[in-house]
Amino acid sequence: MPTFVPGLELSRRFYSEAVRPLLEEAAPGIPHSAARIGSGSEVLGFDTARSADHEWGPRLQLFLRSSDRSRHADRITHLLAERLPKTFHGYPTHFTSTGEANDIRVMSPTDGPVHHRVEVTHVSSWFTATLGFDPTGPLTPADWLATPTQLLAEATAGAVFHDGLHVLTPARTALRWYPREIWLHVLACQWQRLSQEEAFVGRCGEVGDELGSAVVTARLVRDLMRLCLLMDRRYPPYGKWLGSAFARTPAGARLTPTLTAALAATDWRTREQHLATAYETVAGLHNELGLTDPVDPATRAYHSRPFRVLRAERFAEALLARISDPAIRALPRVGAVDQFVDSTEVLGRAEVARVVGQSLKDYR
After folding, report:
1. pLDDT at 14 over 80
2. What is this structure's pTM?
3. Which tens digits make up the pLDDT trace of 151-169?
4. 191 and 61 within one domain
5. How confident is the model at residue 364 (pLDDT cuts 50, 70, 90)?
6. Other C-beta atoms within 10 Å of 11: how many?
7. Are residues 227 and 252 in the same domain?
8. Closest residue by Cα to residue 58 from 80, 75, 76
9. Element (H, E) at 170
10. 361 in a domain, yes or no?
């Protein structure tokens, strides 16, 4: 492979130097938009040379008006297959299947037509297939809460290279972050998650279960990382990139040593000590946001038991008290779908996540 070029930059050049000239030949004067969004480490800016081994390379989406797509998509796709260069800046433009069930594709040399990764689509169709709803229309609380944050991150990150339709950028802007009261609800539910297990680090250790204590600690660390991302108005990505995304938050540099120490500790009292430091730091960050009246950030004993906790439910209650919309106030206290589901099979498929998320609409 040639010297690594970040995937977004490669796709940008691919569009301007190779795809756009052929598009203008195939459908002259037809307005379009072009972007590299959706799945892929390069969309989130986390790709490295290792990423080139699958689902990475010169690829992008071309968006047409619905009527133009039905008339021109096949011709554009065929012309690109016949006329695109076999390689672009040293990278093959042809993709072959690995034969795996999920149809993973990899760059591969070819002497024939190029099986390219230029997706010719329509804005509403693409978002509906990706997220389960169309952001060019009104959005409901269910749209927000039934959509995994990984998918929202993929739809709003990446880059738009050209927006001749003037629809793609407004759609992405509408999805940039949760509406305020949905955000308050999601934050409150994340604090609630912390409150449910923060005492278990000590309780497991007290009965000699250091392994169980370590597992609980790891869960709490993950929840704190996700909480910091939510507080910083960033959609938490899935596990592979959670640490990388957390490191980019204002809290990342400050909290990483403490959270790492909690994970590395071999006894529950040391874990509890580091977690308490992390709790107080994140509690202080909450107060700096000014979303609620200040909440005491100090840790304390867990009722009459000798375990040091934050009582994180206090922060959840403070946030929920600031929600004025009765419909949002009445939502079950479980938050967005990836706050109560931990299955890649669900969170990686918008249509499944939507069914699971909406199944709680009548739960109280």
Report:
1. yes
2. 0.93
3. 999 999 999 999 999 999 9
4. no
5. very low
6. 30
7. yes
8. 80
9. helix 168-174
10. no
